[in-house]
Design goal:
heterodimer, A: five-stranded antiparallel beta sheet, B: mainly beta, seven-stranded mixed beta sheet, 0% helix
Chain lengths: 113, 111
């Protein structure tokens, strides 16, 4: 089955700096890659997703890049703010959708004021 | 839309007792998922349904766990008998032709 590895497990940045979280996946047939943000005590919420026919996608301060050859994808957050502090999860699916998502282990991002 | 609704939000029970977690998916979504989240194992998919039919239950840890979806608007996850190692946050999620939407979760504590 699919295996998704996520790094780093914890990340601290100064407010205004950029944060980058990286994930690798094992199944070359995976074609859907969402990112979820989970604030303390709350549910995971989708922040951005990308499909394998696209190399990069951006939404305001958040961007995701995908390298299918290397089987890795990354989340980039620019101009970080304290409210960006949360756990971020990457995931991968070969079903092209939310079915059979395999999640990474999560990254605790702390933005220091 | 109220989103995915789970109940109860918190459940504390003693080892050996039966626990039933409930979920109402978003109307119109034909996929329903049960996940378990722990510090040690992260987010694990337990089982998912499509049009009320269980499709993949390979993530269900053991026979003590069972899930049902009697209709399109309701699903249950049952643990019988419960054990302390079942303590976790259990999330229900649903999707249609759309991304996954999670409920607020049930925090289960088995003492």
């Amino acid at each position: 089955g699919e295996n998704v590895e996520q790094h780093p497990s914890t990340l601290s940045v100064q407010e205004g700096d950029s944060a980058v979280i990286k994930c690798t996946y094992s199944d070359s047939a995976s074609n859907y890659f969402p990112w979820y943000k989970q604030e303390l005590g709350k549910r995971p919420q989708l922040i951005i997703d990308i499909r394998s026919n696209v190399g990069e996608k951006k939404d305001q301060r958040i961007a995701v890049t995908l390298n299918k050859t290397a089987k890795h994808f990354s989340l980039h957050i620019t101009e970080t703010q304290p409210e960006d502090s949360a756990v971020y999860f990457c995931a991968a699916s070969r079903a092209g959708s939310a079915r059979q998502l395999t999640f990474g282990s999560g990254t605790q991002l702390t933005v220091l004021p | 839309d109220a989103g995915v609704i789970q109940s109860p939000r918190h459940e504390v029970t003693e080892m050996g007792q039966e626990v039933t977690l409930r979920c109402k998916p978003i109307s119109g979504h034909d996929y329903l998922f049960w996940y378990r989240q722990t510090m040690m194992r992260g987010l694990e998919l337990l089982i998912y349904f499509n049009n009320n039919v269980p499709i993949d239950d390979s993530g269900m840890p053991e026979d003590r766990f069972s899930a049902k979806m009697p209709n399109a608007s309701f699903s249950t996850l049952k643990i019988q008998p419960s054990e302390p190692r079942d303590s976790a946050v259990y999330f229900c999620a649903s999707s249609g032709n759309s991304p996954l939407h999670f409920g607020n979760g049930t925090r289960l504590t088995v003492t």
